[in-house]
Amino acid sequence: MSETKRQRSLVKGLAAGLVAGLAATAAKSVAEMVFPPRVHGEPDPPEALAESMAGHALDGNTKKTAGQTIRWGFGAAAGAAYGALAEYYPAATDKEGAAFGLALMALTEETALPAMGVSAPAEEQTPRERTSEATSHLVYGLVVERVRCVVRNLLG
In angstroms, how far is CA 138 from the centroid of its own chain? Predict the structure, then answer.
């Protein structure tokens, strides 16, 4: 059944988006291994956020675990929100999810994280860092949309 003809379901949209968000986070992580956004020892924003939230420095293992928890939790939550949005506003899926990936980058890497003091403002990043961030967020957006479609179709 095509997506435009099936009955909307918030629960199914959230579930499909959640699964898609996890898959897209994995794909984004691989993209960042191939084309890392930080190559000069800059702190990983999720790890910096974990320390900021804790209010003190964290030991290596705790910081890494907290950073990964934030990364995967945020990726899953963003995917779930996207899945729900796609149910009621199909235009959100334009460009096969690429627009969503870039919007997510604008909201996080270029706005929220610098405002929280856990990453450098976009204008202070090198072109390589910005290109890597855009690439990995495009990967996230494309994967989240493709997996969301597959899972949503399986859910009926």
Answer: 10
Q: Write down the pLDDT at residue 1.
A: 42
73 or 94, which is more confident? 73
Stated pTM of the model:
0.92
What values do phi and psi take at 19, rounded to 5? -60, -45
Structural domain spans, the chain: 10-40+70-155
Ordered DSSP codes for 65-81 = HHHHHHHHHHHHHHHHH
pLDDT digits (tens, 9 = 90+) for 67-80: 999 999 999 999 99
- CA 12 to each of CA 25, 81, 116: distance values in angstroms, whole numbers, following the listed order: 20, 12, 33
Contacts of 149 (CB under 8 A, 6+ apart): 3
Q: How far apart are the first and last CA of the chain?
A: 8
Q: Which amino acid appears at position 51 of this protein?
A: E
